Every structure is written in structure tokens, then in C-alpha cells.
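COMPLEX REQUEST
Ligand: iron/sulfur cluster
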Amino acid sequence: MTQLPEHTERSLGLVIDLDTCVGCHACVVACKGWNTETHGAPLSDTDPYGAAPEGTFLNRIHSFEVQPEAGPAQLVHFPKSCLHCEDAPCVTVCPTGASFKRAEDGIVLVNEDDCMGCGLCAWACPYGAREMDAAAGVMKKCTLCVDRIYNTNLPEEDREPACVRTCPAGARHFGDLSDPASDVSRLVAERGGMDLMPEQGTKPVNKYLPPRPRDSWPEEQSDTLAPFLAPVTEEAGGFLGWLDRALEQLPGGRA
Amino acid sequence: MHPAPSVILFSTLSGLGLGLMFWLGLGLPAVTGWSAFGLYFIAYALAVGGLMLSAFHLANPKNAPKAFSQWRTSWLSREAWAAVIALLAVAVHAIGVIFFDTRLAVIGAIGSALALLTVLTTSMIYTQIRAVPRWNQVTTPILFLTLSLAGGALLAGQVTAAAMLLPLAGIAQLVHWHIGDARARGPDSTPESATGLGGKGRVRLFEPPHTGSNYLLHEMVYRIGRKHALRLRVFAIVLMVVAPALLLIVPFSPLILALAALSHLAGVLASRWLFFAEAEHVVGLYYGQR
Amino acid sequence: MTAQPRTETNPEVADEIRRTTCYMCACRCGINVHMKDGKVAYIEGNRDHPVNRGVLCAKGSAGIMQHNAPSRLRAPLRRTGPRGSGKFEEITWEEALTTAVSWMKPLRESAPEKLAFFTGRDQSQSFTSYWAQAFGTPNYAAHGGVCSVNMAAAGIYTMGGAFWEFGQPDWERTKLFMIFGVAEDHDSNPIKMGLGRLKERGARVIGVNPIRTGYNAIADDWVGITPGTDGLFILALVHELLKAGKIDLEYLARFTNAPVLVDESQGAETSGLFLRDEGGKPLVIDSASSEAVAFDTPGILPSLAGKLERGGTTHRSVFQIMAERYLDPAHAPEAVADRCGIPAARIRSIAADLAHAAFDEPVIIEQPWTDFRGIRHERMVGRPVSFHAMRGISAHANGFQTARALHILQILLGSVETPGGFRFKPPYPKPPEAHPKPHGNGQPGQPLRGPHLGFVQGPEDLCLCEDGTPSRIDKSFSWENPMSAHGLMHMVIPNAHAGDPYRIDTLFLYMANMAWNSSMNTAAVIDMLTDTDDSGEYVIPRIIYSDAYSSEMVAYADLILPDTTYLERHDCISLLDRPISEAEAAADAIRWPVVEPDRDVRGFQSVLIDLGARLGLPGFVEEDGSAKYRDYADYIIRHERRPGVGPLAGFRGDGSEGGRGAPNPEQLERYIENGGFWVAHVPEEAQFFKPWNSAYQDWAVSMGFYDAPQPYLFQLYVEPMRRFQLAAEGFGERQPPEQLRERVRAAMDPLPHWAPPFGEADPDEYPLQALTQRPMAMYHSWGSQNAWLRQIHGQNPLYIPAEIWTAQGFREGDWARLTSPHGEIRVPAAPMAALNPHTVWTWNAIGKRKGAWALDEGAPEATKGFLLNHLISELLPEQGDGMRWANSDPVTGQAAWFDLRVKIERLDPQEQAEPGFAPIESPVSKGPKVLRWRVGK
Ligand SMILES: Nc1nc2c(c(=O)[nH]1)N[C@H]1C(S)=C(S)[C@@H](COP(=O)(O)OP(=O)(O)OC[C@H]3O[C@@H](n4cnc5c(=O)[nH]c(N)nc54)[C@H](O)[C@@H]3O)O[C@H]1N2
Ligand SMILES: Nc1nc2c(c(=O)[nH]1)N[C@H]1C(S)=C(S)[C@@H](COP(=O)(O)OP(=O)(O)OC[C@H]3O[C@@H](n4cnc5c(=O)[nH]c(N)nc54)[C@H](O)[C@@H]3O)O[C@H]1N2
Ligand code: SF4
Ligand code: SF4
Ligand code: SF4
Ligand code: SF4
Ligand code: SF4
Ligand SMILES: [Mo]
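STATUS: Structure written out below.
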């Protein structure tokens, strides 16, 4: 069913904090582990111990270097998985109906039973969020852990995506982005959450929180700092004099 | 994009076959009997063969029949329908001229229209992909259509039509490259917009997410050298347009025509190879392409 | 319109969840192992666990691929080809153990030191050292000397605890956090969780590191320091803070040895030592009475400005001596800026930030407490600045003093063990005196008289033979590195090969890839391992090795004792050793066999128990000579170090006792029920000021950390170091050899100083410094056998500063030749801008030997991956006196991995990283061509 729902009841998605992500790949492997064990066909690896190992992953961490006009270069670790776009081109191109966007929560999924492995949806996705599984011949993508978030076999607190649950730095947040009162929506509002490639017109649900400004050093010693470091004395040997006076102030010192 | 042989052959051959069907449907040439059979055989061999080749591109062909289901949104699904209906309509016309010496002109015209529509749907599969700026432009369907018409005319022996269409296709090709180059270089999507970090400075991939390859890199992040591409472009335009057009000036002979058609075919294959190989998918921005 | 496809949203998750402890690295997070059909299906973090609270790193989640790796050894092996060939035959355990005993027993009876037993990053050192002690060899240590002993020793000698297992920042309260030289660290998940918390709270993070990746990438401010110069930078901060009086005087007076009186005479045998009373207690001047009294006299406020003439000698407080030294303009920001690569204004601005955060925004907890002088404090006042540091500081030859400098800075700010600062984790704090001293002389047939490793207080504690030569094979606790509290594992093979100080017979290694990534100068070490003497015998005659996988080292052993994977055995993460405590709680944990091995392998600790019994070692046999313990699990339950104190502190006695208590036969079951761990919370009143807090001291005694309260002072001035200096100045019976005299005098400075690292080659010829970093998703050499992780890091480029990249005309895909005074490598290169301009670096331990780890010989790890180790020598170039000193810190013997100077040259793209080595034959078979891992259904 590749017509996009007119309206989704909720817009579940991730908010990824680029200010906090340390690039540890924990979310990558937790995602692989969970999804290889549960949803659809296992995520396969070819030549896993050989010269050209590669496999299917639903989430990957890139690292970018950013060179500002002034100041040192910065490094940003950049997690990327499906953004569960509102206007998901990957869905509408799919000829078999395997790709769809759920009306109830906006999650974009592939129904592997229908997929013919044409790869067109992966072409249509600007973000590289879809990977064809080499062994199963079906398209794979982030499921937003649809088999966790509603799973009554899991304790309530674990009904969140595997990548979110595992992220040691707490850089990944999950929630309903259509609800302005949700924690994720608030984060987006407070921190200026942004879309990737808005010019592609996909209207991603997932948002990225930009890194906070870095390296705010004063180039010269600034006036605001000076009071903190005013020397106790300019005189040679005056330090001990200061010390004596300072010690007298201490409770239990010479009164 | 990865220039997959199956997809290149598919679109080239089916385009030619459907182009031939277009002319045959219009009764150009007005053949019947065995000669009609011969031409229709070539048309069907190219079109059906091409379509079948496309199945090699499928990782899970057993679900191919489901490709008919999503015609509301999917150009690939529409292509499937258009192809089947076109082939059927053309078949009715063909049966008339081959076996009954009767030309059902209306059905023929419908068949021709459907054949062109099929080519259009094929081209739209690529045109609609916004993530490939080089494809996502109006000259893509024009290129596919003019090539299909010109090639079909060559095969159908429509010398005059071919002589007029080949230059048109050539122009479409040149414009397609020109606009494509501009779009690929254009500021639309950049590493800065892909990462949202543009406000902070210039963005460069430092470390890819994995040291090996993956599906995306194989499929979408194909790189072709600039010099190599230029040579191929010359090769493509010469074989596809210039040589056949020149051959058509030479007094007509079936051999010359066959030569022109073969040259054209080779040229279209080169052009189609470039169509994929030169197409930069924006996902490359996440993998260090600019 | 067709209906939306139905999606299974409620699948069964597991038949059962077994909770144990991760071992993909030394962080020891709690894991929930999901089982399906009796097999391991999925691993996630244990939310209740004190270390990771549910999160898990990439390695931890990939544990499943480690557990099923094709490189797992399958049975004991006996070498059949020459060493290094990789040719082996599988043998039975009985044969393996009999062979081992037949080699070891005669050694024990004649010369126990000829067995050298060294272990890697295992987590059972209290047990392995106990075994070695029972055997009687002085030659035992774990890998700490290779790793970070500078950090540990500097911390213990200065403040009775260090970073990592010993302590942590007060993540919840700190406002300014500075992290020095850390890429990942052992406390891998907790640091990430902590940083996440800081970000959430909007606290500021400053990263001091030549390389801006990982933690440093998310730091608000980056200080791209030039390697090896942190000591200068830190002491410049000290200079600024002292000058501005932005130091915590009360804290210094009450809790540190800043007020302790030092003998200022010159050339006397007491010069530089503390003035002490008859009981040996250091004296301070009481501010109220102006009398010199013992430091712990109840009720006093010691004076920082104390001065005393006694017996014609002036004694002044440590603080005055220290202030004098660091107020010197030589320590001013301007004096160090160029060398550090940090503008003076920036140094000053950081000092100002520290001052501001510490003193203008104190954290106050309304919690009364009583200190060891009986003084009641109404509130807990803290300085919300905290620090963390690791190998970027410690893996330099000036690392001990640099780490000391950092601790001094922390202490001056009053930010250790105060709210918002740095907090110890039980059983720390613990002063050096509470640790054992090293024991280094073995007697045939006898156990060693005490533990091998410890903390020396002066020359009398060194491990020397009668003739003054080192008694240990690694020369720990000798004049070359007197405070080598963790041994020098990197010197064992070179020394044994050189017969310096003597030859050994059997090298027994456990879990250390010494023929590859944990050796300096790998190629030479390989030669040493295979070198033969005139009679054709190997110079190191016998090598026994326990590994779980087909590592490079396996090929160099004569006998292999294959270990299980971490999901198949019992382990004990003990308070006696390296526990998993947090600042707020003592904790320990176990591993247990959540699955049984499907191969003929045995947990190494159980094998040691068996060997101990077969050798008749005391502690391992009953009076009648029968085996004392069935296996390691039995030992964990029944062994007692001191009455009531065993390997595990939890669920003792009837199961309700913690800390002390009788052995409980059900103890392991209780741990398993509790999620594999045990936690005891530190009482509220005891949460901070632990070294001086009576409530904490009493609690620590109740837990069995020590038998009586032992409050102590932080040691700004480390008197034991002065004792070594005095020896170098000619005082005392034990004297350093002449050629080391000057070095000992200079290195053993009781106040931290900065010296250029020893390894510094000619900076004109070798203008760059080469570093490695831990990739977060890889653990040393183990990661590469992991099908998932090796896709992330299957090869490692050499990262080159963008300026050099451009200047030398590098293009994408180019390689580089990197040359050190010691050798050259040819490796793939890549540019980096967020990098100190004098630094090149690569990820650590990605490079693999062909044939190892069950990988194809064409694996990128073996063709493009590389080690820097080939460029690092374990010995420094010859000195003026013809001596070659170890490339180690002169105080602790810490391996100076990062003092590597190099030059670089562009190369066109190559096929094979050099040096290449001949492939080794694999003792295990290869893995599958396609992996579709799923168990159940
Ligand atoms: N994922 C993972 N975790 C691990 C390990 C692993 O292999 N993988 N190994 C474990 C082990 S055994 C250890 S010892 C720890 C080590 O943990 P870390 O101490 O984090 O070890 P390194 O990766 O060596 O990082 C050293 C850092 O110091 C920086 N550095 C080098 N020289 C200097 C200097 O002079 N000044 C400053 N300021 N910085 C400098 C380097 O750039 C690097 O970032 O990690 C443990 N944790
Ligand atoms: N250039 C450079 N070299 C370095 C460093 C650096 O920063 N730069 N860091 C140094 C440091 S700090 C360290 S700690 C060393 C680490 O170096 P090593 O201690 O050699 O570490 P590993 O490579 O992890 O090797 C440990 C061995 O343990 C084996 N093993 C894994 N699991 C088990 C198990 O369950 N049981 C048994 N019996 N064996 C097992 C592995 O197969 C492997 O062979 O490297 C040092 N080398
Ligand atoms: S990110 Fe890609 S795969 Fe996901 S919904 Fe958007 S277009 Fe589709
Ligand atoms: S690969 Fe599968 S999901 Fe994607 S477009 Fe083709 S049929 Fe649809
Ligand atoms: S939401 Fe689930 S499927 Fe998506 S990236 Fe996270 S773990 Fe993977
Ligand atoms: S787990 Fe969190 S910190 Fe680590 S790479 Fe993923 S998002 Fe970043
Ligand atoms: S940090 Fe990662 S590998 Fe280390 S113990 Fe924790 S989960 Fe395991
Ligand atoms: Mo280490």
C-alpha cells in the first residue's frame, strides 16, 4: 500500500543529539543484534571473516569534520537511520506495495513477504536509509523497532527502540513528534532541531539537534575573566603575607 | 549509480522494441505476412527480452507479479501495466497484419500510443528520483522518448523520420548532459545540507561508518573519472546519432540501414551506461562525495 | 485501496534471560543474555546494574559474535612445528596438565623464579597472584606496567586512589569537567553516561587532547595540546591559581600534607623529610596554639604557613615550598605556551574558569559529618570542577609526574572527595601504606612471603638480590623504576631473552597477545621468542599460554591451555582486586556459565586450581594432599583471605551479610538471582570526604576493606620519593648504581615537575609525534574476529594533519612512509584537520598477522591494517654511558607508548602494509562465507 496516509495519528521518530553523540557505534550494533534476531529475515553478512566483509545494517555512524571560518576544525559524529519521512519517496515508488507508511504511527516499513528486491525504494531515499539484504534479497530498513515499542512481552520501560535503549551517552530520543507536548518535541523546540536535506521535500520525522557552539575562547584575556585571576599581591614575597591574612579568616584559625 | 548491465540492456532494448512497435502500429512500414512477422518478431524480442532482462535486477523475483499492484503511485508498477497492455494491443494489431492481412488502424494507433507510454513510464522511474538530480529533470523522458522513436524508426526503415529524429535525440542527449552537469554541480544538496551542519562551516567526511563496502556504496556511490566520461560521451553521441545519421545520407540499402541501427544500438548502450554511471545519488554526500 | 500490511509487533523475545557480566572489555557492564532454545540470541544491558544501568556499547552488543567466533580454540594444543609456524596437534587435558606440571614442578623445587607468570587484562589478579605466590616465583605481574600504572601509582601515592576503578567525577553535580588524554578508557560506558548527563545539565566540558575525536569531539572546548606537555600546561594552571589565591586553603590545611613540616636543611640525611614525633607522625603547626603537633591531633586547624626551627634546622610547611616552586615565572603560561601549543591567554582563561567554577559556584549539601580530628562539619561544601585522565597522560615517560601534577591541581582546588568534584569508589580511598609492599625473593619449594606487587616506601622496599641486582625478571622495584607498582610486562620477554638479570625456563602467559599488539618492537619480540642458543634450544625454553582464541601469540607457545568464552565460565569481579564499585556504593559481580562450552575447553582459573593441586601448592591442597577446591566456582565461595573476607563480599553467611561473613555455599545462586552482582550503598553521611570522614571509615571497616579506620592526608609532597632521592645523594645503605644515580635523583622529585619525555628523538629530524587511540567499537586485538565489529574498523589509516597533507602533496588514497629512529612502516594515509599540527595517529591494534584470528589471509586487517608498535622500541637509544634504558617512566616503569617521534613521507598507493610477516598456520578452521545469525524459530 504505497499511497502515503493523508494523516498519521502519531508521528513516531527519533531525535538525535549531535552535541552528545560520541560516535561509539553502540546503537549500530544493538540495532543489528535486535533486528537480526527478530524482525523479518536475519540481517546477513557476507564474507564475514574474509577479505571483503560486508553486511546489512539499519543504522550507521558517519563522522564529519567541520571547518569553521575561524577557529579549529570540529568533529561531529553523525548517526543515520531511516527518518520515517512524512513524504516518503521510498514508499510511493515501490511497485509491489511492500513499502508502506503506517497510518497509526507513521512508521515506514517494508513488508518482506511482498518485496521483490528491485531496489527502487533505496534509490528514492536521499538518505541511504535502506539496504538490500544480500542473502534474503529483500529490502531492509529501520523499523523504529516496531516489534519492541508495542511488545507486551517486554517490560514497559523497554518498549523503546534498541538503539535508544543502548545509547550510552543518551544521544538518542524516541517519541511522538506530532505531539508538541512530548519530550522529543520539546527538545526539538529548545535546541533548534533540524531536518536533513529539507530541499529533498521528504519532510523527515526524525530530527537532529545541532552541536552547541564550540571553542568560545577569548583570544586575548578578556575583562570578564580578569577578576577571577587577580593576583593576591604584586609584591615579591607578598604571597605569604596574603596567606597569613587568608588563614585568619578560616573557622578554627587564629581569631 | 551502479551501471547494472541488466538495467542498461533492459531499458535500451525495450526502448528500441517499443519504438519499433510505435512505427509498426502506425502502419509504417505497411507490412503484412512474413515481413510483418519478421519486424514484429524483432520488436517483441527486443521489448519482451528487455523486460525479462530487467527481472535479473530483482533480488527476489518470485514477488515480481506483485509489481502490478501499486499503479496508483509507482511508476514501475505503471510501467508493468503499460507494457502488458501495450504488448497486448500491439499483438492484436500484429495478428491482424500478419495472419489476416488486415490493419486495425485504430487499435494500431492505440498500440503505438501505449508503446510510447510504456517508454514514458520507464523514463519516469528515473525521472521521479529526486535523490538523483541528474535524472530528476524534464529532458529525461524526452531523451528516452526521442531515442525510442529514432531507434524504432531506424529499425522500421523510416529513413526520413529517423533522419529527423536522430538529431532531435542528439539534441535531447546534449541538453540532458548539460542540465545534468549543472544540477550535479548545483548547490541543491550538499554535505552541508545533508548533515545540517552548514551553518557551522565547511563539511567534509572524516571517517566513513564502515571500512568495507556496503549495498549503498555498490548501488549508489559509483564513481567515474571525468576524462573517461567525456570520451564515452563522444563515443555515445557519435555512434548513437552522428554515424547513423551520416549513413542515412548514403543511398539506401538494407545493409546500410542495419549498420546504422547497430551503430545506434551501440551508441544508446553507451549513453545508457553513462546515464547510470554519471548519475550522482545524493547519498554520496554522506560518503565523501561533493 | 489495499489495506495496510499487518506487522508482527508482539514477537516472543526470549525463552529466558540470564544475567551475567560482559567481558568484551574491562568495564564489566551487566548484561541480560536472551536465550532461545538454549542458545544465546541477543544481548542487552542490565538496567539494574550499577555500572551501565542498561546501556551497552558496540562491543557488548556484539558479544554474541565473539561467543560464536570461528577463531575460538577447541582443545588443548601441543606445538608440532617450529615456534611461530602455527603447527599444533590437539591433545587431551590430562596430557596438557601433566606436561605443564612436569615442566613446573622441578622449577618450584629448585628455582621458582625460573617460572615467569604474567597475565593480561584478566580480572582475577587477586587469584592469579595468590597462585603465583603459592608457587613461590617472584616473577608475577599483570599488564598494568604496559597499560597505565602511572595513573594508578600517582593517584595512590598522592591521594590514595586514582581515576577509573578507583574513582569518578561527581557527574550529577560537577559544573566544569576537564578530560585529559582519554579516547575511551576502561570506564567506557560510565564515562559516556556521565558525559551525557553533563550535556543534559548544560555543564561545560573541556577536552585536552591532541586529537579531536570521540569525547573530545563533543567537548565544548578543545585544547589540542602537543603530546607529552600536559605537565607544563597543568603546572601553569597551578601557577595562575596560586598567584590569584584561588585555592581551597581550608581544605589544604585540614586534609592534605600542605601544613606538614619539611626539614629544609641541605645535605643531611633528613633533608627534605618530614618532621615527625616519636610515634612517627608528621608534625604540623596548630594555628590556634602555634605549637608543633601531630597532624591528627584532635580539634586542630593546621597552619599552612607553619615554620619551625628545631635543632638548628628550619622546617617549613609543604605548602610554602610548593608555592615557591610553582609561583616561579618558569611556570607562567607565557613560558610554556609554545611548547604546549596552547596560547597563554587560553591557559589563563582556563585557570579563570576553574577558579570561577570552584569558588564562585560551590555545591553545598546540608549533611553534617565528623572528621578524623573529631571536628563536626555542619555541611558538605564542594568544588564543582572535576577531572579525568588516562593514557594520554600516563603513557609517556613523564607520565607519573604529570599525573601527580594533575592531582595536585585537583587538590589545590579542593575538589577531591567533595561534592561536585572527583569521588573515590570503595574500597578506595586507601593510602599507599595500607597496600602491601612488594615481595621479590623466592625460596625453592616455598611460597613467596607476601604479594608480588605493592607500594614501596623507600629503598629498603626494593626487590633486589644480595648483590643489588634486580630480583625480578622485569626489574620491577629496582633502581630503574622504583615505584613499579604493576610490574613491567613489556620487559619480560626482552629481559628473559637477554638473560638480564637472569634466564628463565618457563614463560607462562595468560590472555596477553605479547607476540603482537601488546609488545613494543613486535618484530624483535617475535625474534626473541623464536631465538635459539648454541645448542639449538630456544633461548626462552618453554612457553605455556592460555588464550580463548587463535591470536598471534598462540603460534609462539609450546603448550596451549584453551580458555572458554566469557559466557561459558565462572569469573569473580572482586573487591579484593578490581571491583565494579561506584562512588555511592561498593559492588562486586560474577560471571557464570550461561551456556556450556561445546568444545574441549576449560575456564583458565579452574585450570590454575587444578594445576595448583597437582603441584601441591599451599592453599590449593588439603592437609592430606588432596585438592582443596573443585574448581574456580568452589574457590570463589570457600576461599577466605582473612577470616570472613573472601573473593565475593555479597550474600555471605546466611546470605544476608555483606562485606564480612562466613562463606555461604549458596552464594553464587544468590548472585545469579540478583542479576550477577551485589551492591552495598555508602551511608549518606559517608558519601564525601571519605579519607577523613569517620562515618566512612567505620563503614569501610565493617565492610572488611581494612581492619581499623585509617584516615590519612593527601600527599602533595610524596616523602617516599624523597627517600629515593636521598639514596641517590649518597645517604642510606641501599645505593643506586652509579649510572642511575643522577636519573633517580632527578626522577624521584617529591613535588611534581615536568621533564621532556625520554624517548624524544631529535625534533628536527623527527618533527612529529605518533599516537594511537582506542576505537570505541574495538577491543585491542579481539575485535577483529568479530564479524560485526570488523566491518566498522577493518583497517586503520594513518591520520595526518591537514597542513602536512597539503604541503607534502598527499592525495586521496595515498600511503605514507612513517619512520622513527627505530624503524619504518608503510601504511595507508588520510587527512585530518581537527588535529594537533605536530601529531599523526591511528586506531590501535587493528592490524593483524596473516593467518591469525581465523581470518582470510587477504583480510584488510592483514593487508592494510597496521600497528605502530613496530616503530616503538622497548629500549631507548644508547645513552652517553653506553646504557640502554627501558622506554618507560623512570618512576614506575610504565611503558612510554606515546613518546614516539617520527617523520613522514608520501607514497603512492600500495597493496600491502609493511612490514608484512609470513602467514601463520591457523590452528582453527575458517568461518562461514555467509552469516545469517538467528537462533530459535
Ligand atoms: N573500546 C575499547 N575500550 C578500551 C580498550 C580498547 O581496546 N577498546 N582498551 C582498554 C585499555 S587496556 C585501556 S589501557 C584503556 C585506555 O583508554 P585511553 O586512555 O582512553 O586510551 P587510548 O586510546 O590510548 O587514548 C589515549 C588518548 O590520549 C591522547 N593522548 C596521547 N598523548 C597525549 C598527551 O600527551 N596529552 C594528552 N592530553 N592526550 C594525549 C590520545 O590522543 C588518545 O585520545 O582503554 C580501555 N578501554
Ligand atoms: N601501539 C600501542 N600498543 C599498545 C597500546 C597502545 O596504546 N598503543 N596499548 C597497550 C595497552 S594499555 C594494553 S592493555 C595492551 C593490550 O594488549 P593485550 O593485553 O595483548 O590485549 P589483547 O589484544 O586484547 O590480547 C589479549 C589476548 O587475550 C585473549 N583473550 C580474549 N578473551 C579471552 C578469554 O576469555 N580468556 C583468555 N584466556 N584469553 C582471552 C585474546 O584472544 C588476546 O590474544 O596493549 C598495549 N599496546
Ligand atoms: S529516510 Fe529514506 S527510507 Fe526512510 S522514510 Fe525517508 S525516504 Fe524513506
Ligand atoms: S525493493 Fe522491495 S520494498 Fe523496495 S521498492 Fe522494490 S519491492 Fe518495494
Ligand atoms: S529504531 Fe530500531 S531499527 Fe531503527 S535504528 Fe534504532 S534499533 Fe535500528
Ligand atoms: S550509541 Fe549514541 S553516542 Fe553512540 S554512536 Fe549511537 S547515538 Fe552516538
Ligand atoms: S563497556 Fe562495552 S564491552 Fe565493556 S563491559 Fe561494558 S558493554 Fe561490555
Ligand atoms: Mo591497557
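REMARKS: Residues 159-185 of chain B form the longest helix (27 residues). Residues A 31, 34-35, 58-59, 81, 142-145, 161-163 surround iron/sulfur cluster (ligand 5) (CB under 6 Å).
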